[in-house]
Design a protein that fits this description.
The chain has five helices and eleven strands. By secondary structure, it is an alpha/beta fold. It has one domain: Glutaredoxin. Strands 1, 4, 5, 6, 8, 9 and 10 form a seven-stranded mixed beta sheet that branches. The chain has a two-stranded antiparallel ribbon with strand order 2-3. The protein has a two-stranded antiparallel sheet with strand order 7-11. A hairpin with a 5-residue loop joins β2 and β3. The longest helix is centred in the first third of the chain and has 19 residues.
Length: 194
């Protein structure tokens, strides 16, 4: 009987882990999508066909971790913009009652900030936390997922960061090198499903 109970527990835990790993996997081609932005304009992935790399970051205005990472991400976006790297923020909280497009419009980013109303894009990517980064490499007009997960290894103290996962991934792709850390568990707030 103990064996059966242990087996059932192990099965349920592995099934739960498998269910949470949905969405695109590393190396998958990413389908085009369109979302409305904080500027009331619709933006599509295909709009960035001339970019070498697109960095999607699922984030919001409420999560303390997202707030801690905001300046780091804006700095990265600025540093890499001239090298063909396009940053896009995606807010999966619009529509659950906690945030609106007007709340998003208060952020004056130099790159798109899109509302994932209905959370179709976050489900498509398998995003579970904010902030969580997904790096797409443009290969002949098709975007391929090369990295997903954490921005770095220290959300609380920027000066204490030892591993810059997102930055290192971007650098490797711009140098046409293999991405060494393709999937790092993101640290952040769980995306509230609605």
């Amino acid at each position: 009987m103990k064996y059966l109970a242990s087996f059932a527990t192990a099965f349920l835990l592995s099934a739960g882990a498998f269910a949470q790993s949905g969405g695109y996997q590393l190396g998958d081609k990413v389908a085009n999508f369109s979302l409305k932005g904080s500027n009331q304009q619709t933006t599509s992935l295909s709009d960035f066909a001339s970019a070498k790399t697109v960095v999607l970051v699922f984030t919001n205005n409420q999560c303390p971790y997202a707030k801690l990472y905001e300046n780091r991400l804006v700095t990265l976006a600025s540093a890499y913009a001239s090298q063909g790297v396009q940053f896009v923020f995606v807010n999966p909280g619009v529509g659950d009652g906690s945030e609106t497009l007007q709340d998003m419009a208060s952020k004056k980013y130099t790159f798109p900030y899109l509302a994932d109303e209905g959370q179709s894009l976050s489900k498509q990517f398998g995003a579970t936390k904010t902030p969580e980064a997904f790096v797409l490499h443009n290969t002949g007009g098709e975007f391929v997922l090369k990295y997903k997960g954490a921005i770095d290894d220290n959300a609380q103290v920027e000066s204490g960061v030892q591993n810059y996962y997102l930055k290192n991934t971007i650098d490797a792709m711009l140098a046409n090198k293999t991405v060494s850390a393709g999937d790092k568990r993101a640290t952040g707030c769980l995306i509230k499903k609605y």
